[in-house]
Design goal:
Blueprint lengths: L2 E7 L5 H5 L7 E5 L1 E8 L2 E7 L3 E6 H5 L6 E7 L13 E3 L2 E9 L6 H5 L4 H4 L7 H15 L10 H21 L4 E9 L4 E5 L4 E9 L8 E9 L9 E2 L4 E5 L5 E5 L1
Antiparallel strand pairs: 1-6, 1-12, 2-5, 3-4, 3-6, 7-8, 8-9, 9-10, 10-14, 11-12, 11-13, 14-15
Helix pairs in contact: 5-6
Length: 258
């Protein structure tokens, strides 16, 4: 079963403690590949595993002893886009993105979408999947607005670019007569995070922890967002359909229309 999630934690060394109380939501099974993107020392790193996993798969165990304030994880069961180059998440500099959904015969619109990219972004595309092209169209729009290298870009501006990018990619696909649709998407610039609900349910859980009531410095906060097929239980809030959840650097959240 496919799985897409992101987590933001204001104390990177406590990422695992933040997720542990609800770790069961990161369980899935029978996937064809999985990947993880995360931020360490200001750099986006990738861990990609393009081989199938039969039976249960636990993303919490994969996180291991990871220390990071921004994480995106993707597990998929599709058979279309194989190999390391097509394994999500994708990254470019300080940006990282994971997405669900698929469009049949998507390579037919590669050329049309590449026409919207400057040369340096065309050369950055290594695979064939819709997710990678969505990322690069999104980056192209930021580049056009002079915002691509702005590490502290306000979520409202990145949300506007994401909204336009998704509409553009979907229109190109529709004009070409391709079937299918883009799915839920999560993207981060290592300072803020967006989670867009285009398809099935997406849930957020805002968590506040204190490891020692006598030591205020042990308090930390996190936001976990999961794309799921059904309700995830107490404490999770469902995003409205066709909306974008914006998570700022201070972990404040806002929901805007898609």
């Amino acid at each position: 079963m496919p799985l897409l999630f992101t987590c933001v934690c204001n104390q990177p060394e406590r990422l695992l403690s933040a997720i542990e109380p609800v770790r069961e939501v990161l369980l899935t099974k029978d996937i064809t590949r999985w990947g993880l993107s995360y931020v360490q020392a200001g750099e986006v790193l990738l861990s990609r595993h393009p081989k199938p996993v039969k039976g249960p798969f636990d993303f919490f165990e994969v996180l291991g002893s990871l220390s990071s304030d921004y994480v995106i994880g993707v597990a998929t069961d599709d058979e279309t886009y194989k190999g390391n180059a097509n394994t999500q998440p994708f990254r470019y500099k300080h940006w990282m993105l994971g997405m669900q959904g698929d469009i049949e015969n998507f390579p037919e619109v590669h050329e049309a979408l590449e026409a919207h990219l400057p040369g340096f972004l065309q050369r950055s595309v290594k695979g064939k999947s819709p997710a990678e092209y969505v990322l690069h169209v999104f980056l192209s729009l930021l580049h056009d607005a002079g915002q691509l290298d702005d590490h502290n870009l306000e979520p409202k501006h990145s949300a506007a670019a994401l909204r336009t990018a998704l509409a553009l990619v979907q229109k190109v696909c529709s004009d070409a007569g391709l079937k299918g649709a883009l799915g839920n998407i999560m993207v981060s610039n290592s300072r803020s995070t967006l989670a867009a609900r285009l398809a099935g349910p997406v849930f957020q859980r805002r968590l506040k922890h204190i490891e020692d009531a006598k030591r205020p410095e042990t308090e930390f906060r996190s936001v976990l967002v999961v794309s799921a097929e059904s309700a995830l239980g107490e404490g999770f809030e469902e995003l409205p359909p066709q909306s974008i959840l914006c998570i700022s650097r201070d972990l404040s959240t806002d929901i805007v229309p898609l």
